[in-house]
Specification:
By secondary structure, the chain is an alpha/beta fold. It contains 11 helices and 10 strands. The strands form 2 sheets. The chain has a 5-stranded mixed β-sheet, sandwiched between helices. The structure holds 5'-O-[(R)-(carboxyoxy)(hydroxy)phosphoryl]adenosine. The site of 5'-O-[(R)-(carboxyoxy)(hydroxy)phosphoryl]adenosine has 19 residues, from helix 5 and helix 6.
């Protein structure tokens, strides 16, 4: 089954063609990062307009790159939630029009389910059940993936997402937007014990997380140095931050795996590109005798292929939509 899949929830427009949920024929991605960099973060109105400008072109390019015709497309899938509402609306509307014009089913896909499904592309042998930590710019959640469409959140951030913590910290360090990658790069040259940063524990659920206090601690250190003239060790702060975020995430995930008896652990989302997090998960899983699944870099960030992968399993579960499909800024997993 060949699915044309569309992603437009934030600042990447992507259109992919995915066969049977696992084989990516093409994934055309346009990143708007440069458009937003000057503002230090994503401007929703600009994001929506940019999606509108490029989405049809990307779809044409996808067909050409895969060497197929419109008649070969069996279904159209799109991210319908969660995300920036104006941005998601563009993708949903495009997908609805395409499905109507081609006379094929329309498949709505939850963005985080898509991130989790990026692992099905990277690891053809991976099947549920497994435990997945989904870490992106807008969401951070630990998910019990019992089936392809049967998922339960074990814990999630109570405030900022891990990616948001990296992005806001990077801004105060003058590292630009998006900030995760520059912090990651800078951290490689720093001492991760240089600054003491909090490891917040929240509420009664041991798997819930919090990153807003960590972000504030980084901002406070930077402001303190600015005000007192004390030199700021940016690399040391970046390394200390990566360590703190990683310890928060890896510790909870491994504890959940132990409690639930999981030996298959997946990581997904843009923040899964972080070197420290990847290294710490590799070491922790090796120690615990667990198999680790982390997508390659290009499948960590937003992309169209992951929506096509999850879309396939949503279709098999009978979860299609008609032309009344709407876009939503938030939606339970
Ligand atoms: O999954 P994604 O592309 O978009 C959402 O669905 O939100 O994730 C984007 C987030 C941004 O916050 C970005 O700074 C972060 O992923 N990110 C990283 C790295 N690369 C991207 N965070 C830490 N280290 C990285 N190497």
């Amino acid at each position: 089954m060949l699915i044309l899949s569309v992603e437009s929830s934030c600042d990447e427009t992507a259109v992919a063609l995915v066969k049977d949920g696992r084989c990516v024929l093409t994934d055309q991605i346009f990143s708007q990062a440069d458009l937003h960099a000057v503002y230090g973060g994503v401007v929703p109105e600009i994001a929506a307009r940019s999606h509108l400008e490029v989405i049809s072109l990307l779809a044409e390019r996808a067909l050409t790159a895969a060497g197929i015709t419109r008649a070969d497309v069996d279904a159209v899938a799109c991210t319908y939630a969660p995300g920036l509402i104006g941005a998601v609306l563009v993708g949903v509307n495009f997908a609805k029009s395409a499905a109507l014009a081609l006379g094929v089913p329309l498949i709505p896909v939850h963005h985080i389910r898509g991130h989790i499904a990026a692992n099905y592309i990277a690891y053809p042998e991976l099947e549920p059940p497994f435990l997945c930590l989904a870490i992106s710019g807008g969401n951070t959640m630990l998910v019990d993936v019992r089936g392809y469409t049967d998922m339960h959140i074990l814990g999630q951030t109570r405030d900022d997402a891990a990616g948001e913590c990296f992005d806001k910290s990077a801004r105060v360090l003058g590292l630009g937007y998006p900030g995760g990658k520059p912090i990651d790069d800078l951290a490689k040259r720093g001492d991760d014990t240089r600054y003491e940063l909090p490891r917040p524990y929240v509420g009664q659920n041991p798997y819930d997380m919090s990153f807003s206090g960590l972000k504030t601690a980084v901002i406070n250190i930077a402001h303190h140095c600015e005000q007192t003239g004390e030199p700021l060790d940016k690399a040391g702060l970046a390394a200390s931050l990566c360590r703190a975020v990683s310890e928060s995430l890896v510790g909870r995930t491994m504890a959940a795996a132990k409690e639930l008896g999981y030996t298959k652990i997946a990581v997904a989302g843009g923040v899964a590109a972080n070197s420290r997090i990847r290294a710490d998960f590799t070491a922790a899983c090796e120690k615990a005798g667990c198999a680790l699944y982390i997508p390659p870099m290009k499948l960590c960030g937003d992309n169209g292929a992951m929506i096509g992968a999850q879309g396939y399993y949503e279709y098999l579960a009978g979860r299609t939509a008609d032309s009344r499909l709407n876009a939503y800024a938030t939606m339970p997993l």
